[in-house]
TrEMBL record:
GO cellular component: a single term: membrane
Keyword Aminoacyl-tRNA synthetase: no
InterPro entries: Fe3_Rdtase_TM_dom (IPR013130)
Highest taxon, organism lineage: Bacteria
Record-annotated Ferric oxidoreductase domain positions: 12-133
Keyword Transmembrane helix (UniProt): yes
Protein name per the record: Sulfoxide reductase heme-binding subunit YedZ
UniProt xrefs under Pfam families: Ferric_reduct (PF01794)
UniProt keyword terms in alphabetical order: Membrane, Transmembrane, Transmembrane helix
Entry membrane topology: Multi-pass membrane protein
Signal peptide (UniProt feature, chain positions): none
Localization in the cell: Membrane
Transmembrane segments: 12-30, 51-71, 91-111, 123-143, 149-171
Length: 177
């Protein structure tokens, strides 16, 4: 059973990063107000929202399986308070920080009507910090951190978000001319 938990913990972490990347890239690009190719805005918004929610569920799976896995030796305090872990405290702390930031985004999104659009938007900006923190956690923590496939995937995630940012900034520059 230990191997199953270990593989599930790693797999859910990687897939959470991929889906979080999709959500952030679409959020950045769609915020420009311009359509993204032939896709209608409602479809882009739906993929943005759903990929973020599925990433959050996978992140919970990542944390829970590693808490249950005796090989990972993750403790509840490691998940709740950043940078207190005994094994690789910096990289683990980045993962905890990313979890905390993403939790703030999810909670305020679920309570959007109560916190108001202005409050929701202010907290939603936290996702701009949660994504790179999560990417750095991926690159610094765990047994797959230096493998070619995970490095290539991490570069692809970075390129996707960077391309979305360039797209948005380019459109903004064109509009201001």
């Amino acid at each position: 059973m230990t191997d199953a938990l270990w593989y599930l913990g790693r797999g859910t972490g990687v897939m959470a990063l991929v889906l979080l990347t999709i959500s952030v890239a679409l959020g950045v690009a769609a915020r420009s107000g311009e359509p993204l190719g032939p896709l209608p805005r409602f479809a882009v918004t739906a993929v943005h929202r759903n990929s973020g929610l599925i990433a959050s569920v996978l992140l919970v799976g990542h944390v829970v399986t590693l808490l249950l896995d005796p090989y990972a030796q993750l403790k509840l305090i490691d998940v709740l308070v950043p940078f207190l872990g005994t094994a690789e405290p910096f990289w683990l702390g980045l993962g905890t920080l990313g979890l905390d930031l993403l939790l703030a985004v999810v909670v305020t999104s679920l309570l959007r009507m109560r916190v108001g659009v202005r409050g929701w938007r202010a907290v939603h900006w936290v996702s701009y910090a949660a994504w790179p923190v999560s990417l750095l956690h991926t690159l610094g923590m765990g047994t797959d951190a230096a493998t070619p496939w995970l490095l290539a995937l991490s570069v692809l995630c970075f390129v996707a978000v960077a391309a979305a940012a360039v797209y948005r900034l380019t459109l903004r520059a064109e509009v201001s001319r």
